[in-house]
C-alpha cells in the first residue's frame, strides 16, 4: 500500500522532500483574489478538505490523496477569517489512480482553530464496489485469530508489509480527523509513520485499534507524537480519540464521532465555470 507522494514515503525521505515542496517559511495569504495553484496555501487548504473528507467517509477503501490543485481563490471575511475556494483532482490512496475532482471551501476562523469545510466530489470508482471492498476488509479483520500488532509502518524504505496494510488504512482514516482538527491557515500536517499499532479484540461488531502515530508539521518541521484510538464499523461514523505530545511537551486531546460540522455531499453537479 505505497504511494509515490511525500505523504507516503518513509520518514527519512519525507524530511528531505517536504521542505522543498512546501517552502521554508510562512506564506501570508492575499487579502482577496486568485492564488497560484502551486502555492503552499492552496495545497494546504486542499489537503485540509481531504482530511475532513477521509474522516467523514470513514471508509478505508475510499481514501483519497491530493492530485493537483486546478483553481484556488481566497476571500477575506472581516472579523471572521479567510475562506478558500478550491477545485482539485484526487487520487486513490493505494493505487494513485485518478478517482475524481472535488470542489471545496475551507474557512479558517479567527476564533476557532478547526477549519470549517464543505466539499463535493465526483467519483470514478463504483460506490457499490467500494462498499463491498469495505465489507471484505472488515470481514478479514474480524476473522483474525490473533490481534494485529506492528511497528514502524512504513519502514525507513517506505515499505508496508501486506499483513499491516489494514492497520495502516485505518490509521490514515483516523489520523485524518486529528490533522483536520489541528490544521490552521499556516500549519499543515502529514502522517509520517505509525510507530506502533495494536488491535483490540472486541465483543461487539466493531474494529478497534490503538496507535502511536508521528505527524510531520509543516512548515515548522516539528515531529509530533499522537496516541490514537480508532473504532470502525462499516456504514457507521468513524470514532476517534487522540492525545498528542509535541516536541515542546505541550499536550492536547480531542475526540470525534463523525458528527462534526461541515458537509460532504458526494457527487456534485455544479458547473466548473460557476465556481
Automatic annotation (TrEMBL):
Q: Which PROSITE patterns does UniProt cross-reference here? A: CYSTATIN_LXN
Q: Which GO CC annotations does the UniProt entry carry?
A: extracellular space
Q: Which residues form the signal peptide?
A: 1-23
Question: What InterPro entries does UniProt report for this protein, alphabetically?
Answer: CYSTATIN_LXN, Cystatin_sf, Latexin
Task: Name the source's superkingdom.
Answer: Eukaryota
Keyword list, A-Z: Protease inhibitor, Repeat, Signal
List the residue ranges of the region (Disordered). Answer: 251-275
Alphabetized GO MF terms: metalloendopeptidase inhibitor activity
All copies of the Cystatin LXN-type domain together span 24-129, 149-252
> Would you identify the family this protein belongs to, as annotated?
Belongs to the protease inhibitor I47 (latexin) family.
Protein name according to UniProt? Retinoic acid receptor responder 1
Which organism is this protein's natural source?
Gopherus evgoodei
Amino acid at each position: 500500500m505505497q504511494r509515490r507522494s511525500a505523504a507516503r514515503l518513509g520518514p527519512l525521505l519525507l524530511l528531505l522532500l517536504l521542505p522543498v515542496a512546501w517552502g521554508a517559511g510562512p506564506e501570508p495569504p492575499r487579502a482577496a483574489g486568485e492564488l497560484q495553484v502551486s502555492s503552499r496555501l492552496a495545497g494546504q487548504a486542499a489537503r485540509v478538505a481531504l482530511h475532513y473528507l477521509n474522516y467523514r467517509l470513514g471508509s478505508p477503501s475510499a481514501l483519497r490523496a491530493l492530485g493537483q490543485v486546478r483553481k484556488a481563490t481566497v476571500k477575506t471575511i472581516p472579523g471572521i477569517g479567510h475562506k478558500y475556494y478550491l477545485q482539485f483532482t484526487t487520487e486513490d490512496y493505494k493505487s494513485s489512480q485518478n478517482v475524481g475532482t472535488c470542489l471545496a471551501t475551507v474557512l479558517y476562523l479567527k476564533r476557532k482553530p478547526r477549519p470549517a469545510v464543505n466539499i463535493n466530489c465526483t467519483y470514478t470508482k463504483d460506490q457499490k464496489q467500494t462498499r463491498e471492498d469495505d465489507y471484505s476488509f472488515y470481514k478479514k479483520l474480524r476473522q483474525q485469530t490473533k490481534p494485529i500488532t506492528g511497528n514502524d509502518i512504513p519502514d525507513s524504505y517506505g515499505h508496508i508489509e501486506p499483513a499491516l496494510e489494514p492497520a495502516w488504512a485505518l490509521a490514515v482514516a483516523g489520523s485524518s480527523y486529528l490533522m483536520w482538527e489541528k490544521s490552521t491557515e499556516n500549519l499543515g500536517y502529514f502522517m509520517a509513520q505509525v510507530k506502533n499499532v495494536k488491535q483490540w479484540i472486541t465483543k461487539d461488531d466493531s474494529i478497534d485499534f490503538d496507535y502511536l502515530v508521528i505527524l510531520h508539521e509543516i512548515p515548522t518541521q516539528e515531529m509530533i507524537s499522537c496516541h490514537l484510538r480508532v473504532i470502525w464499523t462499516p456504514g457507521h461514523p468513524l470514532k476517534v480519540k487522540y492525545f498528542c505530545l509535541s516536541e515542546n511537551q505541550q499536550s492536547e486531546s480531542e475526540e470525534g464521532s463523525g458528527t462534526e460540522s461541515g458537509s460532504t455531499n458526494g457527487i456534485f453537479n455544479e458547473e466548473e465555470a460557476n465556481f
